[in-house]
Description:
- By secondary structure, this protein is mainly α.
- It folds into 2 domains: 4-187, MFS general substrate transporter like domains (Growth Hormone, Chain: A), CATH 1.20.1250; 204-383, MFS general substrate transporter like domains (Growth Hormone, Chain: A), CATH 1.20.1250.20.
- The chain is 79% helix and 0% strand.
Amino acid sequence: MVSRRQGRLFTLTALLLAAVNLRLAVTSVGPVLTELRAGLGMSTTVAGLLTSVPVVCFAAIGLAAPRLARRVGAPRVILGGLMLLAVGLAVRPFAGGPAVFLLLSAVALAGIALVNVLLPSIVKDHFPGQVGTVTGLYTVALNVGATTAAAATVPLTGAFGDDWRLGLACWALAALVALPPWLMMARDRSNVRDQGQVHPSVRVTRNPVAWALAVYFGMQSTAAYVIIGWLPQIYRDAGISAGTAGVLFAVTSFLGVPLGFGLSALAGRVRSQSLIALVLGVFGAAGWAGLFWSPTAAPWLWAALLGVANTAFPLVLTMIALRGSNPAVVVKLSAFAQGVGYLIAIPGPILIGALHDATESWRLPLALMAALTVPQIVAGLYAGRNRQI
């Protein structure tokens, strides 16, 4: 017989193995994008689509997760998502052209979208008294996986004789490693629960808390993707070297590892998360305002401020799990908040680039980013209030 403690440890291990995979498909591409474009004959326009495909997939596929979970159970859907991810990662580097590469990337990202949405419900189901701590642990695993893929893809490519295809394909192994525990959970009838059966009166689309979470998720995602897409260029255009700009960008990512865990644990222990959302919004506003004033005046401070603000991601995941009264509601709430949130985030990086091109300056884009912290704070104050759907 497996003890309750052993069962919880097994489930936590499965959660962490799945979480490590949630950004590999995205962060592994950038370091070898030049070689990838040359190898596939990919135009600049098509390469630009690679930055928008993840957000579109997360929004569109994530909204389908509750219906799938209702039919077969969350563990089986997560297992299927990891299988899609493994296939997409293994096959896409060997695509014959850019269109097939994009299609197979979408397959991998569809798998990630399903796992993204359903992990909060697993946390709520198996760790109802430790939602914040466990959410913090799996966001740390997510960040570690993302950072490792970004840092190790080039060395791996070199180890494979400068073959970028093998350097990308090897990340499918991480998804394969995550499969066995989820296969066991999917086969265990005690784990395959009907997590889609929500009381008919629970319609998250009509609940203001759900909309507040969606707006908060969308605003923090917008900021995160603008940081990923444009922060190094903002520093470089201000006269900072490419190497230093890269390290400054890394600061915003690395800060999320320890801070994300600590913040999620704290958020799970307090009755309301509104004050935390307010503080993170103020840090973000200060970071964007500092860049607006002068990127070179205190570049490390601005990067640190934005790194702290980026921990809004683990905060919103924690709030999603806390606001749902049971795992079934959390599935719907997670799908709605992430699906609508990613739709909100799609235009952000594109608009920032367009404003820069139109004005030949970063001042207007940075002013806009500072202004967008206001709706993020307002949504966070509302979403963080102590109540459940």
